[in-house]
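User: Could you go from structure to sequence for me? I need the amino acid at each position, not a summary. Structure tokens:
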């Protein structure tokens, strides 16, 4: 396996809220090898975007290490972090919200190049912007268009061109296709894969939808209420989901795209609050296999063989 580009150790992010301490990310560990994609999946509010934001240091961690090429980015000073930011980029779910509506396609893509003072000559800047547009599959004629004049797919391509401007090594893709029509989703996913090949990019691909991350991911981590409950290669996870939560998520994936087939498992019970979580398994209240032990003791991630980790007291029992 190739070298790790990103490694996260015991990462925690707690938010102080009115009713207590909200455990948005609660002791998360993972390694992403260079040139690969890790899919990060889970329901709304489980902490996916917070992990992405922590890696970009858009929000500061409460505890833990975030190693980028072996260096803990939490320890970098402002100047070194500015350098580091060039290597780490993010693409957001809703390009309409993430792009500045008053900026043309040209201005949006040129902005990071101008901020980082990459070119001294205007002609070089223009050349680079056109090159990035071509790379992201945007026709030249759109250069003076504004976000509201573009469809969702093209807007997301502008977001992608912008993210590529400074030749990053690693990109956090936060639900990059969730706001797009299904027909356009596939085009944008194909583009992401093509760019990964071409530039040797590493991705953290965030989605609430397992079927979206299946093909693009080398490994997948499933999150539940701030914690990773299962992680495996994409192939292994779809063939042998071990955690009851993953099984429920998978059962909701449309049949033609899954290898593992079973009846639809409807999750019952409320999603518990991430504020002051109790001592037991966080999934206990919705789990159909829940036993007394689960209410008393939180399971930890255990090696289940074949590079597969899962956190449940009753796997194989
Ligand atoms: N700045 C903040 N202050 C307080 N709580 C926050 C803050 N940001 C996030 N949270 C909380 O942290 C938890 C995780 O949020 P996060 O946005 O990471 O979830 P997510 O998995 O990305 O969800 P979604 O699929 O809806 O995007 C949620 O309970 C959210 O309400
Ligand atoms: Mg999110």
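Assistant: Here is the amino acid at each position, in order:
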């Amino acid at each position: 396996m190739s070298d790790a580009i990103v490694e996260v150790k015991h990462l925690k992010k707690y938010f102080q809220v009115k009713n207590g301490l909200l455990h948005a990310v609660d002791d998360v560990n993972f390694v992403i090898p260079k040139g690969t994609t890790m899919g990060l999946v889970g329901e709304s509010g489980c902490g996916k975007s917070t992990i992405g934001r922590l890696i970009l240091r858009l929000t500061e961690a409460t505890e833990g290490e975030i190693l980028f090429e072996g260096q803990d980015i939490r320890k970098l000073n402002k100047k070194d972090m500015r350098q580091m930011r060039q290597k780490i980029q993010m693409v957001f779910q809703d390009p309409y919200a993430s792009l500045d509506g008053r900026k043309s396609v040209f201005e949006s893509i040129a902005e990071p190049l101008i901020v980082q003072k990459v070119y001294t000559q205007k002609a070089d800047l223009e050349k680079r912007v056109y090159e990035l547009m071509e790379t992201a599959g945007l026709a030249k004629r759109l250069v003076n268009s504004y976000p509201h004049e573009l469809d969702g797919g093209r807007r997301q391509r502008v977001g992608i061109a912008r993210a590529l401007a400074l030749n990053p090594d690693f990109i956090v893709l936060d639900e990059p296709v969730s706001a797009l029509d299904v027909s356009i989703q596939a085009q944008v996913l194909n583009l992401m894969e093509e760019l990964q090949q071409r530039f040797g990019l590493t991705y953290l691909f965030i989605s609430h939808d397992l079927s979206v991350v299946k093909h693009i991911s080398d490994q997948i981590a499933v999150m539940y209420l701030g914690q990773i409950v299962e992680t495996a290669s994409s192939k292994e996870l779809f063939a042998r989901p071990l955690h009851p939560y993953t099984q429920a998520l998978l059962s909701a994936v449309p049949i033609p795209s899954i290898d593992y087939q079973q009846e639809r498992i409807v999750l019952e019970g409320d999603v518990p609050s991430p504020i002051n979580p109790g001592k037991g398994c966080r999934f206990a209240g919705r789990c159909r296999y829940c036993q007394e032990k689960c209410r008393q003791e939180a399971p930890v991630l255990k090696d289940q063989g074949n590079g597969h980790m899962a956190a449940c007291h009753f796997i194989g029992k």
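One structural detail worth keeping in mind: The pocket of magnesium ion (ligand 2) is lined by residues 48-49, 174 (CB under 6 Å).
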